[in-house]
Design goal:
The protein is an alpha/beta fold. The protein has one domain: 3-Layer(aba) Sandwich (Rossmann fold), CATH 3.40.50. 42% of the residues lie in helices and 15% in strands. It contains ten helices and six strands, in the order ααααβαβαβααβαβαβ. Strands 2-1-3-4-6-5 form a six-stranded parallel sheet, sandwiched between helices. It is globular.
């Protein structure tokens, strides 16, 4: 696995080729390693989820922040086994933050987004990254618990939601989802990819999208601190669409 230095990993907005290669290797190693055992965790063995973990961790590490990932999908790792190190802890040859465990929580039948929003309004101060399906998000009974209005831009913690959407060409269904996303107080950042053929270019696109997402969150919080927000903000929500074949 490629190893990089903290002096070059975050030298620019676009990650270096060395770091892109290192992330690609980490994701591949994670998928192969966990898929080879019966007791696995989907966050480590699913290419989409592993990709989310790798790129969110890179973007947050650059800002000296940590993430807790939340999913409703069950974990089959033994109770005494953790999820290993954060990707950046594995990829950095020197890191002032030191080796840190990857924090993943499996919330069972609870909504990952609702759980994250509730915790962001408490003493929780790691970035909360709920990953959920379009079906989970579109549950009308949960709308009041999925709204970003539950976040106080100035005082709440950070929530970075990821919604896994089907690669549907149904324009009406897509419009309906976007209407709900906006009504719930979010704005969409869409990432499409053919995950079995994930390339270096795809990694760069994902990395730059995460830069845009975190810059938007920083701006919202800065505006709230300066008391210049005149309306409730639209928080970023990343829509992940897995394509069936390359386009």
């Amino acid at each position: 696995m490629a190893i990089t230095s903290g002096w070059v990993a975050h030298a620019s907005r676009e990650p270096s080729g060395t770091l892109v290669s290192a992330l690609h290797d980490w994701i591949g190693t994670s998928i192969r390693g966990t898929s080879a055992i019966t007791a696995a965790c989907p966050v480590l063995s699913d290419p989409v989820l592993a990709g989310i973990v790798g790129h969110v961790d890179r973007a947050l590490h650059k800002r000296r922040q940590r993430a807790t990932f939340l999913t409703s999908r069950p974990c089959h790792l033994p109770p005494t086994m953790g999820h290993g190190l954060r990707p950046m802890s594995s990829l950095m040859s020197t890191d002032d933050m030191g080796p840190e465990d990857l924090e993943v929580e499996h919330v069972g039948s609870a909504s990952p987004l609702a759980e994250a929003l509730a915790r962001a309004s408490s003493a929780e101060r790691t970035a909360l990254v709920p990953v959920f399906t379009e079906h989970e998000f579109m549950n009308s009974d949960m709308f009041h618990l999925h709204t970003s209005r539950l976040l106080d831009p100035r005082y709440s913690g950070v929530v970075i939601p990821f919604i896994l959407v089907e690669g549907s060409d149904d324009a009406q269904a897509n419009d309906d989802r976007e209407d709900v996303v906006r009504a719930a107080g979010y704005t969409s950042y869409t990432f499409e990819s053919y995950w079995p053929g994930f390339s270096a270019e795809d990694h760069t696109r994902f990395a730059l999208l995460m830069e845009d997402v975190l810059d938007e969150i920083v701006q919202i919080k800065a505006d709230a601190e300066d008391r210049v927000l005149t309306v409730d903000p639209l928080w970023p929500m990343v829509e992940i669409r897995a394509l069936d074949a390359p386009r």
